[in-house]
Amino acid sequence: MSKGTVLLLKDKASFEPIKIHQSTTYDINDSTQQFSDEYEIKLATLSYTSIFLPVLSHVFVNVEELSKILTHGPEKKYWGFIATSQKAVKGLKLAWNNSFNDVTEAGSFGREKTLWKSLPFFVVGKATAKAADDLNLNTLGLKSGNSESLAEYIIQFHGESNPTALPLLFLTGDKRLDKLPTRLSEAGIKLEELLVYETRPYGNFSTELENIVKKNRQIDWIVFFSPSGVDVALENLMKLDLWKTVKIACIGKTTGDYLEKNGIKVHVISPRPEPESLTCSINEYTP
User: Fold this and answer.
1) Which residues, in sequence order, are CB contacts of 136 under 8 Å at separation 6+?
2) Which H or E run contains 91?
3) Nearest to residue 225, comparing CAs of 278, 174, 177?
4) Is 139 a residue whose pLDDT tops 60?
5) Which of 253, 32, 58 is nearest to 173 (CA)?
6) pTM of whole model > 0.85?
7) Do the beta carbons of residue 128 and residue 252 sit within 8 Å?
C-alpha cells in the first residue's frame, strides 16, 4: 500500500540535440524517456508513488565557446572549475565530448585533457558529482549541499593549497544566485563565469497539471526544486482545491526561504539536493 502520492515539479532529465537558426543548442527535456528517475526509485523503496511534472525547460548554450576553452587548456588561465548543478555538468560533458572525444593522452589535445582532469573540479553534492563520473575529473565538494557550503569549502581549500591568483572557471545557468560568487569575491578568489544553460518556463505546465489532478484525486506532497520553479508553478497550484490540504516539500534552504517569502508554509526542507535526503525528510515528517 502506498504511503502517499508525491508530485515532483521536475522532469526525468535527459537531453537530445536540436537545431535552431543554424546553431546547435541542446534540449535537456525528453518526455519520451521511460527510465526510472532516482527520486522515483528512492520514494518507491519507502512505498511512495511519484508523479513528475516539468515546470522548467532548459537549453544548453555556449557549447562551442566552452569547447574552445577546453581545447586551449587551463594552463596559465584557471586553477580549477565549478559546476553547481547537474545541468551545468551536462553542458560541460557536451563540450568535453566535442573537444576530447577519442583523444588519448599521447594524441592531439591529450595534454590539455590531462591538465583539466588534474585541476580541482568543485561541485555541489553527490548528485552533481555523479553526473560527472564518466569524465574522471578531480571532483571535490561532494559533501556540500548548497552553494554557500561549497563557497566555504573552496575558501578553505584555497587557503590550504595556496594556488596561484588565476581565476576559477564557473559554469553556470542564467538563474544562478549571487551567494557563491559574492562569498568567493569577499575572500579574494576570482571567478570567470560562462553561461552554459538557460532556463525557460515549461509551456504545457497548466494543461498537464489539470490532467494530473483529474487522474489523481489524492496528492499528498508537492516538491519544489528551485525558486524559478516556484515562480512558474505557484499561481496555478494555488487555484486547486488540493492546495488547501497538500503538504509542501522543497530542495534546499534557498527554495524554502523563497516559498516562505511568498507566504507558503513549508513542511519539509531536504537539506541536500539528493533523492535519499528528500525521501528521508518526507518519510520522517510528523505534523
Assistant:
1) 117
2) helix 86-100
3) 278
4) yes
5) 58
6) no
7) no
pLDDT tens-digit map of 71-110: 999 999 999 999 999 999 999 999 999 999 866 655 668 8
d(CA 62, CA 193): 12
What is the DSSP track for 103-120?
Answer: --TTSTTHHHHHHHHHSE
Q: How far apart are CA 78 and CA 193, in angstroms?
A: 12
Position of cell 588561465?
77
Reported as type and span, the H/E element at residue 26 is strand 23-27
Spell out the residues 6+ positions from residue 139 whose beta carbon is closer than 8 angstroms to its own: 121, 123, 129, 132
Phi, psi of 209 (to 5 degrees): -60, -45
Rounded-to-integer distance, Cα 104 and Cα 99, Å: 12
* Inter-residue contact 85 to 10 (CB < 8 Å): no
Sequence-ordered list of residues with C-beta below 8 angstroms from that of 247, at least 6 positions apart, any chain: 220, 221, 222, 267, 268, 285
Domains and CATH numbers, the chain: 4-55+206-283 (3.40.50.10090), 61-199 (3.40.50.10090)
